[in-house]
Amino acid sequence: MFRRLLPIIRKEFRQIRRDKRVLAILTLVPAGLLLLNGYALNLDVQHIKMAVYDEEKSASSREFVNSFVTSGYFEYVRMLSSSAEATALLDDAQVKCAIMIPGDFSHKLQSNDAADIQVLVDGMDSNMATTIVGYVQVIALQYSQKIILRNMAKIGRGNYIPIQFEARIWYNPELKSAKFLVPGLIGFILAITAVIATSLSIVKEKERNTMEQIDVSPVSSVELIVGKMVPYAVISMIAAAIVLVAAYFLFDVTIKGSIFLLFCSTLLFVMAALSIGLFVSTVADSQQVAFQLAALLSMLPTMIFSGFMFPIRSMPWWLQVVSNVTPAKFYLIILRSIILKGVGLSAFWPQVVYMLMFVTVMLTLSVRRFKKTVG
Question: Which end of the chain is more exposed for a tag (fewer CB within 10 A), N or C?
C-alpha cells in the first residue's frame, strides 16, 4: 500500500510546487491574514470621546472628571455650556458619551448624600455602549470609595472599608482581546485555506480527463484520497507553525500547554478541513464551482458557528445544534484550552473524539462519492 501511495504523494507535491497560487494560499496567506485580522479585530474599547457639562465647576467636579481622563479609556473632547449641546454632539457622532454633573454635586458629597450623575451614551453600537457603561460604573465606584475614605478619616475611622476584595484574572490577566481572538483566527485561517486548496485537487483530474487513468490503475479510492491528503496536510502543518510563530512575535500569544497536544489536535483539525475539501472536490465538476462551494462551507460556518466572534451560548437552541456540524467549534475549544489555559487532554477529550468522528464520516463520504464519480 505504501509503494502505491508514494507515487501519488510525489505527484501531488509536484503539482503543488508548479501551482504557485495553491502554494501561496497554503503558506503565505495564513500569516498575512493573521497579520491583517489580528490588528484589525480588536474588542478593546479605548479612546472614547467624552464631553462634560459641569454645572457646578467646583474642585470636586473637576476631580471627578479627571478620574475619567486618567483611566486611559476616555478622551476629554470639550466642556459643554448647556445640556442641549450634548445632544447635538451625540447626534453628529463627535462624542460617544456625555457626562452631566449637577450644580449641587460637591454639596451632596459633603453632606453624605448621593450625587446623581447623568451619562448619555451613543447606543448605535450596543457592544461599545455596554462597555462604556461598564467603564463609567467602575470609575464612579472607585471615586465613591475615595470619598468614603475621606469621610471615614474625618470621623476618626481611618481607612476602614466594610468590604474589601481583590480580583485575580486567570489566563489573560492583561485583558487583551488579541489573546482571545488570535487562537480563533488560527482556526479560521486554517479552515479556509485547507478546504479551498484541497477542493481543487480531484477537480483538476476531472478537467484534465485523467480520471480514466486512475480508474484502470491499481490504486484504490481510499489510497488515492489518502495520497492526495498527505501533501496538503504537511503544508498546512507548516503553515500552522508559521502562524503560531507570527502570533508569538506580533501579539505575544504564548503556548502555555503541551506543544505535542497542540500539534496532534491541529493535525486532526487539518485532516477534518481537508476531508471537507476532498468531499467538495468529488461533488464539483469545475474548479470555479469547487472554489465557491469550499468558500461557502468553510468561511460562513467557521465565522458564525465556531465561537470565533459570536458566543454560541447566546444563540437560540436550534442554532446551537446546527453549530455542531463545524469542526472549527471544537478545535477552538482545544486551541484556547492549550494556548491560554495550559490544560491537558482531560479537559477537552470530548472535542477530540468529535473531530475523530467527523474525519471518519467525511472521508467515508468522500471515498464513496469518488467511487461513483470514477464509475
Answer: C
